[in-house]
Amino acid sequence: MAVMQVNIARLSEGRHSHQFEVTPADLGLGEPYSGRIFVDVDLDRSGRQILLHSRFRASGSFICDRCLESFTGPMEGDYRILYVPDGTSMPVEAVEGEVQTVPADAQVISLDEDARQYIQLAVPSKLLCRDDCSGLCPRCGKNWNTGPCSCDQQDTDSRWDALKKLTKS
Ligand SMILES: [Zn+2]
Ligand SMILES: [Zn+2]
Questions:
Q1: Distance from the CA of 159 to the center of ligand 2, in angstroms?
Q2: Among all ligands shown, which has an atom nearest to the Cα of 127?
Q3: CA 135 to ligand 2 center in whole angstroms
Q4: For the whole model, what pTM was predicted?
């Protein structure tokens, strides 16, 4: 049984909005998802075609690439799907998003599988606890977000001084 589905048998012409609030487990999602997932769906029926525009917000538990601290970050995105009844010819005009055929006598459309796939694509490839994360000292391992460490301050300064002398001469 789908957790997110819309009844299309009695969907009238024009726009309709649906809001869903689900858990990652509802959609078969595990790591790194945490908390609730919100999916706002707009359906626009035009004749026998239905255009879906879905926007989602989720959050995940991540490990920062730079400082290795765990943090919770947002993931969001949207996608469009044009549903056309099986047996009808595909729309000629270019469609933004993907096109799916549904059985001509379909009563409902399940949104779970598409939502699961698109939400999985939203996991960021670069994971930073914040944009200006200072990271760890490569020598002593201190988290520079919590303050500087003595060893690197001195080494970095002396290196910079040497460089300044070089560039000046
Ligand atoms: Zn970080
Ligand atoms: Zn250090």
A1: 15
A2: 1
A3: 11
A4: 0.79
CA of 67 to the centre of ligand 1 (A): 4
* DSSP assignment of 103-167: -TT--EEE-HHHHHHHHHHTS-SS--SSTT---B-TTT--BGGG---HHHHHHHHHHHHHHHHHH
Walk along the chain (169 residues) and give the pLDDT tens digit of each residue: 789 999 998 899 999 999 999 999 999 999 999 999 999 999 999 998 999 999 999 999 999 999 999 999 999 999 999 999 988 776 666 667 789 999 989 999 999 999 999 999 999 999 999 999 999 999 999 999 999 998 855 555 555 565 566 665 4
Phi and psi, residue 119, nearest 5°: -70, -35
Q: Which ligand is nearest to the CA of 138?
A: 2
Domain locations along the chain:
5-133, 134-169
Distance 164 CA to ligand 2 centre (A): 22
Closest-lying ligand to the alpha carbon of 139?
2
CA 123 / ligand 1 centre spacing (Å): 17
